Amino acid sequence: MAHILPYKNMTPQLGKNVFVAVNAAVVGDVEIGDLTNIWYGVQIRADVNSVRIGKHTNIQDGTVCHVTAGSKNGNLTIGSYVTIGHNATVHACTLEDYAFVGMGATVLDGAVVESHAMLAAGALLTNNKRVPTGEIWAGNPAKFFRKMTEKELAYAEWSADHYVKLGQEHAG
Hints:
mainly beta, UDP N-Acetylglucosamine Acyltransferase, domain 1, 12-stranded parallel sheet, 8-stranded mixed sheet, globular
């Protein structure tokens, strides 16, 4: 059974048909929207600030989601229809609706990945940087790489729907 744990009287709130894998942990002041998937080995810890995750989002295996203390802006906001690849780290940042974060990427405090934007696999988006709509950023530190193609924009939307279906299959 998944570890859905309260912290200081704050208990995670899950929407309808949310899939949380058996070895994932969701702790504290967390709200998760309908049909979102929290895959195997994911850690979501909202102990010193809040985590808000929209609907139809998928957070893939091994990802760490955390917050920062002492600031209203230290929360983590993940929109709807977002894909976060395996082993990513998202820390006190904002991922807008339809954002795509590649495998092993890191998004640091105050950074924003806008709607229909992509952070490439392995990239490091440093504090307070912003990936604009329609762009791919890559590297360490992440910088503008190129504009997204129509195919890539469509894939980001397909990915969200695909993982919702897959999550429901895993939920049984």
